[in-house]
Amino acid sequence: MIESLIEMDRAASLAINGLHTGWADSMMMFLSSHTVWIPLYVLTAVLMFIPKWYGPDSEAGRLRDSGRKVPFWTIALTGIIMTVLCFAFTDYFTNVIKETVQRPRPGHDHILSGLLHLPAGRGGQFGFFSGHASNTFGFALITSLIFRKKWYTWIIMAWSVAIGFSRIYLGMHFVTDVLCGMAFGTVIATIFWLLYRFIINALLFRREH
Length: 209
Known about the structure:
Helices cover 70% and strands 0% of the residues.
C-alpha cells in the first residue's frame, strides 16, 4: 500500500516536472525565489498599520468600528509579531523534520535519476516536507485571517499554491512534500492566529477595565 502511494507520488511529480518549457522555467524560478518576495512581506507589515485596510469581520476591524480607544499600533504590532513567529516557526521545524525524516528530494531519488528536468539544480539532499510550502501557506493563511478581506485571501492563497506548484515543477519536491508542507503551515498559522486573537481581546479587556 505504502509503496503504491510512493509510486503514485513519483509519477505525479514526474508528470508535473515534464510540463517544462523555456518560458515556464523562468516563471517558476521567479516564483521559487526567496528574495523576490521580500517587498510583499514589507508591504504586508506596512498594511498592518492602516486601520481601513482590515475587513469589518476582522478583530482589528471590529475594534476600529466600535470606536473603542485601543492604540492601533499595538494591534498592528501584534499582527506583525504573530506573522513573523509563524513564518519562523514553520521554517525552523520544517528543517528539523527534513533532517529527521531524511526523504531524498526528487533530484536525489535514484529511481528518477536522469528523468527529471532540473533548471534550478537538485537542491539539498532532503525534501520532506517543503519549506516553501509551509512558509508561504502559513504566511498566506495567518495574514488572510488577520485582514479578513475576501479578495486578498483569494490572491494570497493562489500565490502560495503557485509557489508550491513551482517547487514540484522544478523537481525540488514531490507532490506530497508540498501538500504536507501546506498542511503544516495551516496548523501553525491557525495556532498563531488564535494567539493573536487572544492578545487583541486581552488588550481590549485591559483597556475597558
